Write the structure tokens for this entry.
Amino acid sequence: MKEMSFTQITKDQAKDKVKDLVDAFKENIDQYRNQIYKEAQVRKEFIDPFFEAFGWDVSNQDKRAEQYKEVINEDSIKIEGNTKAPDYSFRIGGTRIFFVEAKKPSVKIKDEPEHAYQLRRYAWNIQIPISILSDFEEFAVYDCRKKPSNTDNSSVARIMYLTYTEYIDRFDEIWDIFSKEAVLKGSFDRFVESSKDKKGTSEVDIEFLKEIENWRDALAKNIALRNPQLSITELNYSVQKTIDRILFLIICEYRNIEKYSKLKEIAEKDSIYKNLIYYFERSDEKYNSGIFDFKNDNCTLNLTIDDKILRDIVVNLYYPKSPYDFSILSIEIIGKVYEQFLGKTIRLTSSHQAKVEEKPDVRKAGGVYYTPEYIVEYIIESTIGKLIKDKTPKQIEKIRILDSACGSGTFLVRAYNYLLNYHLGWYISNNPEKYKKEIYSYKDGYLLSTDIKKKILLNNIFGVDIDPQAVEITKLSLLLKVLENENKEKVEQQLRLFNERILPNIDNNIKCGNSVVDSSYFNQTTITNKSQEEIVKINPFDWKDKKTGFGNIIAEGGFDVIIGNPPYVKEYTNQEIFEPIKQSHLSKYYQGKMDFWYLFTCQALDLLKEDGLHSYIAPSNWITNAGASILRNKILQEGKILSFFDFNDYRVFKDASIQTMVFVIQKIKQSKSYSIDYYKIQNKNISKEELRNYFSTKKNSKKIEYIKSKLIPSELLNRTINFVSSDMNEILNKISEKSNFKLTEKEVGQGIVAPQDFINDKHIDILKDSLIKKGEGVFNLSQSELEKLTLSQKEMAIVKPFYTTIELQKYYGNPKNKLWVIYSDIQVRQNINNYPNIKAHLEKFKKIITSDFAPYGLHRAREQKFFEGNKIVSLRKTAEPCFTYTDFPCYVSQTYFIIKPENIDLKYLTGLLNSKLIYFWLKYKGKKQGEQLQIDKAPLLCIPLYKPSNNNKEETKFEKEIIQLVDIIIELNKKLKSIKLDSEKQLINTQIKVNETKINEIVYKLYELAEQNINVIETI
């Protein structure tokens, strides 16, 4: 008989089911409270059906694969050497959401603190924010972000408590938080956030980051004091190595690989560092990890470190002083902590004192952003998963996976874990009895042998990072992954029987260097002018070198997969980082207005094998950004975009406002048209759980748009890329084919660009001058007030009328202004003494104008012709096109572009540019930032305009009609300014819309669009 799959019931049906459970429990409550009624019984009879009613497939009736089961029973977690399982782990897309710990009804949950402490400690160490303790009779919810203590009573961190008699009255409340539907819709997340006591909560990663930062601070100061011979680089190295070694060994102790309390025993005696060195050397003999390699370490062997410093660190790592349980604290959480940890560095003062401070590049970037695990998993599944599907372990051996900016190793650790799981699954499904060397039985399942884990790591995982500390952390994280599920007996047996150290040396897999600057840099720069510190900072890396790089892999064709999260650095925020690029072989990929990460993808395509896969999470604007044209062309010529996931306004990185995407590119020359899987988040309020579920199941979601987009690479060279459906493409092609006129470079100019340092809110406080408006040296004056200023005729000649969105609207520009700009060019700046009154006024700015235009420069000069006479002013960032016809002197800021074409009527062009057809084009072919159009010069030059032929009477008639309609709309807008009654305003706005509709209808005729095409355009 075919087994039934799990059936989702409605909310009302769920309530009825819970009521039945409540009634049954109440009827026999004395029996259930009896000691002989076991936990297993209450789980089967009440707790399982209770959560099934809330939409969870507790018994896996849907037969999901192990990694995607919604509920894991007895999810084994090791606590202080004793294995105790939380009875349920509720998951979305394989990721834990909350735990439920079950007890039998004879247990008094409300009053017995040890059960709450046990649950909270589980969850705190694994970063599960909310979990439940229940015997069905009682239902207690705990905020597990609050650091647990064995002295806490049962009410500490409890945020909800109810008994079974309240389940029906509070059903909606429970449903809206803990049902599967609520979790997917983000209600659980919102409850988690609303329950967070900002003062009381302290998540494990934040606390552990504080912990190791304290270690670094104390060690840095002490080592610098006791070892004055160390350079900055050596000091950073010594501190990092000491922390890594202690952390590695304490994890080994908690996981029963090393004798528990060994470090503590050393710390309780004198000469701690000397005895630690002995322990480290013995560890090198055992692990061969590189962490303890003293052959290549000339810094740390003879360090002097005070006993008190080391004792304070080590003693506090043990229970009960330590809240951390390193037996369950995941490698991923440790990596997340280290990612933040690496954002700071130690520097030495002139008196050789150590100071810890944020790295300059991190400060400029606004901090360190850790890639969320569900994004990492999606990238890995889309690349490695795609590549190894249905392959044997033998076939996977030569697959090379690279992260060329690996940081603390987040992507590589997850990639390694993915490979481990795949191999284990393959061996199990292909007769485990046949593969006794590869796997061994463990409890009710199987584990990979240490040899196989080492082999996979050495064969498949590779990384590079410019930061030596990051490289060491990556190695540490990967090696800790090898040690998972190992124990002291297995390690010693391997040493005794095979004389083989347990860990591989992965120095040839994870290397330190600058991924985008090679040694050609030394050929093009004068090294004698560079300090050793500068050269170390640049740290060139030669990919093709067989010893220091990955020459053997390159010689074999390259890498199979390149993944990661490269550094995002805009050129205008940090020009220094681009200078070495210009002096090395990657200068061919350099261009202005670019983002640093573009270089990593250009490099990735060079390093990939033919048919290799490349995927990054990065800012999404590369498809339209003018500074990404080299990158776009390279991708179009050498690669095939398989998928593009646009996160739109959804913030992947919580503290950063950047809009991101994930692409998957295959290295293959593709000149013909091909289809792309395009995904776009439509609702920024989508929850992480919904995203996880979507990534794992690809089920339709109203919050995520999916289309099969079509690209024709040859047609997109030197242009922007947009992803649209075939139907949309057909319309866009028709518009493009009909076009017979485009704007030229000389016909489009940008508004006034002020020095960046000038535009800043704090300047208002400095100036305290009511005559000055924020930014660009703009006077806020009426015409009469301006005339009262004691300015000479010569000075008045450089004071120009300045306009903003207050005066400039769609079609119509109001010539009356209150703002005036000092329009100075280089001659004015060089001869400022000829303008004494303006000079006196500008003296107030001296302290704050610090750009290249100092001391009196207000802007980069533009051709004045763009601001005078007839013209069209175009708003650069706008929800829909906003083109304004003006025939008066109109000076504007850089938020506008000005259009002054020849050989076309400007009012006709104003109507055409404001039409729905051009809006449609800009929406799907132009440049965007989120849902806003970004109408820079490049999109303006690409708009497929149509100029009516003088020889075609019908087209001439259409042109005249549009001009007349534009005149009417301008007059209506002018009238609108003087009307006060809302009812009259509404009438005029209705007339404006009617005339705009008439313009749209004429434009459709000019472009000869079919009715079905028009219907599509009208829906935008």
User: Anything to note?
Assistant: The longest strand covers residues 608-619. The chain has 40 helices and 33 strands. Residues 78-83, 755-777, 845-859 have pLDDT under 50 and may be disordered. The two ends are 52 Å apart (CA to CA).
